[in-house]
Design a protein that fits this description.
Elements lengths: L2 E5 L12 H11 L3 E5 L4 E4 L2 E10 L5 E2 L3 E4 L5 E4 L7 H15 L3 E3 L2 H6 L16 E4 L2 H11 L1 E6 L9 E4 L5 H8 L7 E5 L8 E7 L2 E9 L14 E4 L4 H16 L4 E7 L2 E6 L6 H8 L3 H11 L6
Parallel strand pairs: 1-2, 1-7, 7-8
Antiparallel strand pairs: 2-4, 3-4, 4-5, 4-6, 9-12, 10-11, 10-12, 13-14, 13-16, 14-15, 16-17
Helix pairs in contact: 1-8, 4-5
Length: about 300
């Protein structure tokens, strides 16, 4: 029986009925994998290589833990990095320690260097042809000019997640300069500004890709009075299938995702446009399973166990 390690937030913070990491752990257990857990603070390294203070877990019922043990990281052929953002110093140092494990043949999901390189807002800019008009800048003059050209716009903090801090504004609205000074911390911090897509009222689709292949999707409808559709801020999920345009987007992303070792990815699509590429701890597994009747976590484990660890 092989071991799989999940690097997570504290277990007490996870809601098993909603959490994608729990779904993936339970699927691993169903696939006869021995599941272990740790936090980023449990990763270490000595002269012999990277170590981890991990605990075995029984995920059904949620949850029973065994005693913690210090083990070489390479005892875990597959390691899931599922710590939620922020991507702060502790997160970045954890990716460096995991990268040392990769040098010993550990398959890290997603690849440690790509977690650092693919910011979930900026990563999408690798595919500008798939996106709505977009600018990233810290300069108020440039941001204001973009807003003046496009009218309704959306401002996104580059380190944000789950819709937090996303602001809709108008290029002719009063106080626009002051707002942009605020979100850029007086022109010291870049932000993303995009043309507002009114079609978001019909939903923002989360598509889950495993090894570059889309396995399921849900459409997220904004709650009344809000334009943000993220489930964390009240968006309502509904079953969804991919449109031909969304299939095209996935096909264009697939080679780059596989090359980067981004095995489990959640992309967001509004209308015909790619919005974000989520690589840290993509969510939506429970919703796809419940609404679309697709065993996504089990399908993910099946693909993972077929994957050559050396390819990571």
């Amino acid at each position: 029986m092989e071991k799989q390690l999940f690097v997570l937030d504290p277990l007490e913070q996870l809601k098993p009925e909603k959490d994608s990491s729990v779904a993936l752990m339970q699927a691993a257990q169903r696939a006869d994998q021995e599941v272990w857990v740790c936090t980023t603070a449990d990763l270490a390294c000595n002269s012999n290589g990277p170590l981890v203070r991990a605990q075995p877990i029984n995920t059904t019922p949620w949850f029973e833990l065994g005693d913690p043990q210090w083990l070489p990281l390479q005892q875990f052929p597959r390691v899931w990095m599922r710590k939620d953002p922020p991507v702060d110093e502790a997160y970045l140092y954890a990716t460096h320690l995991l990268e040392l494990g990769e040098r010993q043949g550990v398959l890290v999901l997603n690849r440690a260097a790509s977690l650092r390189a693919w910011n979930e807002k900026l990563g999408a800019l690798r595919f500008p042809q798939l996106m709505a008009p977009t600018l990233v800048s810290s300069k108020v003059e440039a941001l204001a000019a973009f807003a003046g050209t496009h009218g309704d716009v959306v401002l996104k903090p580059l380190g944000g997640r789950a819709g937090h801090g996303v602001i809709r504004a108008n290029g002719e609205g009063p106080g626009l300069t002051a707002l942009m000074e605020l979100v850029t911390q007086q022109q010291q911090l870049p932000v993303m500004i995009q043309a507002f897509l009114a079609v978001v009222s019909a939903g923002d689709k989360r598509i889950l890709l495993v090894d570059g292949t889309p396995l399921g999707a849900v459409n997220r409808i904004p709650k009344a009075g809000d334009f943000r559709s993220n489930l964390a801020v009240g968006g309502a999920p509904e079953a969804a299938k991919l449109t031909p345009r969304e299939e095209q987007i996935c096909a264009e992303l697939c080679p780059a995702l596989r090359e980067a070792g981004l095995f489990f990815v959640g992309i967001d699509v509004i209308g015909d446009y790619l919005s974000e590429i989520n690589v840290t701890s993509p969510t939506g597994v429970r919703e796809v399973e419940r609404l679309c009747h697709i065993p996504l976590a089990d399908l993910t484990q099946a693909k993972l166990l077929e994957l050559d660890p050396k390819r990571g």
